[in-house]
Amino acid sequence: MTAIQRSRSHTGQASRADDAPRRVLIGTDTYPPDVNGCGYFTHRLATGLAARGNDVHVVCASADGEPRIEYRDGVTLHRLRSAPVLVHPTMRTAVPLGVTGHVARLIDRLAPHVVHAQSHFTISRATIRCGRRSGTPVVLTNHFMPDNLFAHAYVPERLHQVVGSLAWRDMVAVAHEADYVTTPTERAAQLLAGKGFTRPIEAVSCGIDLRRFQPRPDERAAARAFFGLPDRTTMLFVGRLDVEKRIDELVRALPRVLNRQDVQLALAGTGQRERELRELAEALGVADRVHFLGFVPDADLPLTYVAADLFAIGSVAELQSIATLEAMSTGLPVVAADALALPHLVRPGRNGYLYPPGDVAALTERLLQVLESPERRAALGAASREIAAQHDHERSLDRFEQIYADVRPIRPGAQSRRRVVVGLPQTRRRTAMAA
């Protein structure tokens, strides 16, 4: 019997012949049309696995509130009833009532070979626990950072440490229920271990599609025209315009950069700080040099990087940063905050530079180091492409498929002999509880 020929026996794990597709159930609390790194990664993972012949199912929140089953890009989407997130009007969340029972019935009907959760929130939490109770191997990838929640939940700054500590404690408790845990980077793995997770953690890059994001310097002027940008040297940021992204530092640096270079700043994305950033640009006298591109559809996203000469990011809450990888894959030099996982992508002097978060003067000098020398800019950009090649999403898919093949339940079956497994037939309940 090979690593992927499994027998469910008393754990209920479905048998699989060598030529049968592996059935994967992905549980996620964010999925397109949501706009965020975790949602985009989950979409790439699901569609990439499906393209390789796996039978992929995703359980996620409905985009409009009504539950349904959808078939997109080779993936079966099980959309659960949802409601708007009050503190984040562009997102929806699954209505908690009934989620656990629905996921349990889904696992019972599909008999997946593995379940892969993408967070520790409502749907993902239910997927982990129902997978555990059924004896199905459970993989968890952590994309969580409390900093990404503070602004959306309007948590006062004086409470950040307490709320962050409680949030990490909850995340770690859920993670200990999984059989295998991954994070996008080594820095993210170290962070999780430092918060109390005591089992091994593997860093598996979220990956980047190197074919979609390629250097196209000859198309730079046309790409700028596509977005209505003047044809001048362009610094770019792509992502949510929210507090943890620290975009105001880029705007504050712009007047200083303009003293020595004729540049503009393009911001692709939407978020809670857009109005504040517009007002800041106006107050600093650079409103005509800060261009808000708004939401860029996925089909047009590669063009945003083609239009730029340099990618800049001041975020202090990145566990990897897909946008930075996309920029690097397009051959852009990067100036980034020296925080969390960004130093794993930016090699100072090789493909860009780092600066201390909050130090606008240092940021200005790093930007000018890139902007003032076209030759250096070209060399840094070429190195970015080389480094990005190490994050080819095909390699990430290879690794996740191997993890799925090798993972085994740490404690097969239910958590308690007396606990009823919600939504399972009576015979399966007895089996799971007896394990």
Automatic annotation (TrEMBL):
Q: Which GO terms describe its molecular function?
A: hexosyltransferase activity
Q: Where is the composition biased (Polar residues)?
A: 1-14
Q: Which Gene3D superfamilies match?
A: Glycogen Phosphorylase B (3.40.50.2000)
Q: Where is this region: Disordered?
A: 1-23
Enumerate the spans annotated as Glycosyl transferase family domain.
Answer: 230-386
Respond yes or no to whether keyword Glycosyltransferase is given for this record.
yes
Q: Which UniProt keywords apply?
A: Glycosyltransferase, Transferase
The reply to whether Glycosyltransferase figures as a keyword in the UniProt entry is: yes
Start and end residues of each Glycosyltransferase subfamily 4-like N-terminal domain: 35-212
Which Gene Ontology BP annotations are present? carbohydrate derivative biosynthetic process
Protein name, as recorded: Glucosyl transferase
Origin organism is Marinitenerispora sediminis
